[in-house]
Amino acid sequence: MNSSQIDYSRKWYVMAAVSMGTLLATIDSSIVNVALPTLVRELNTDFATVQWVVLAYLLTLATLLLSVGRFADMKGKKPIYAMGFVIFTIGSVLCGLAANIYMLIAFRVVQAIGATMILALGMAIITESFPASERGKALGFTGTMVSIGIVIGPTIGGIIIDVFSWNWIFLVNLPVGILGTLMVIRFVPAVKPEGKQRFDFLGAVSLFLALFAFLLALTVGQNIGFTDPRVLVLFGLALILLSTFVIVETRTAQPMIDLRLFRNTLFSINLVTGYLTFVAIAGTIILMPFYLENILGYSTREVGILIAALPISMGIIAPLAGSMSDRFGTRPISVIGLGILLFGYIALSSLTVMTSTLGYVLRFLPIGIGMGVFQSPNNSAIMGEAPRDRLGVVSGILAVNRSLGQTTGIAILGALWASRAIMYAVPLTVESATNAPIPSQVAALQDTFIAMILLISLAFGLAIWALIRDRKIRSSTEKEVTGAALD
What we know:
The chain has 487 residues and is an all-alpha fold. It has helices spanning 11-42, 47-75, 77-96, 101-119, 122-129, 135-163, 168-171, 173-187, 201-224, 229-250, 265-295, 300-307, 309-328, 330-348, 357-384, 391-425, 438-486.
């Protein structure tokens, strides 16, 4: 791919078009989260089943993202990105017309196929459209759009559910989808990829099946237990298929993923720390509506407003953190972000049945600020390692990393909260965690936040090690350059 094909003078028009896609996807996901308690009641279902409204979406995303990214590197990003808008918008309308929980779950898969095309390529298009010196700032603005979507989603969702019905929460995507499609057609550059590329079908299929088996094991395991023989078989199958994928990629002339990227230890650590933060955030977001509505007694509308504390703070900070990373480097800023995030989770572990509105907001602000400071530099560091002809794949890797983290967080942390709530309810017999006594639900929530603290502590430690290693490498390189100059 020739970088001269990019007209940097149009970069902000491209940003506007990509932002519409980001807004479309995040509005939908955040609306659905705040609606989960309502869906349990109105569709006559339970916590384990209603989670599939979220999990089916994430499962589809995670298994298709990399294939879409690679295909876009071969055929061009613009047409696939525009088609994503169309499919997602159609899926949204179908979700709004769903008559039961199973139809809703099925139509969420349609939405996810469109979202895959949007989310797999957004960062690649932005990275391609901005000079490297502005990459952190540009990805920071993308983070702001995520935050705006997350803020608008619960707020609009809470109002719509209160005034109309849950069906209408999906129809708000219709005008955004139409406008976004037109903007992509008008502004996103049609960059022509290099020819004579072949799609790695065997690698794509083996990776798809490996991810599907792994994520299915996670989602089913929270209901029947992670030691159930069926779940263990799925985990074993995932391991075999992943090993097959690695073997295929090492023997293919044009692999779907260039595994040499992962030889870069610092690149791999960026992915691991990002994954751990998404696990924690996903668990937090899916549990908070139940805490606020079932335990503290807030209305759906109030829950939507309170959940906005996290994305508002994240959205304000993300562009600033991105600009700082362009100036001072990505790793120092990322470490600071993880430190703030760790402090926030320690604060959240003290939530009780008596927590006030102000107490809730003050505990949540460090979570949003920490993610805002961490995510933009971390994404910039990952995208900075991508060759231009592999931007789609690396953008897909980032998106898969996020989806895997979200799915793992929902499955593992959701199951942890549910099991602990039922355990604390003994000697009472309860059918689900949402029916457990309030003190049992609160104690289970505190236990779950302790698990999140451990995850973020691990990410924080890895980031500090990476910062030290990076500085040693830079220092060694500078000494070699200086020595060569003296010679």
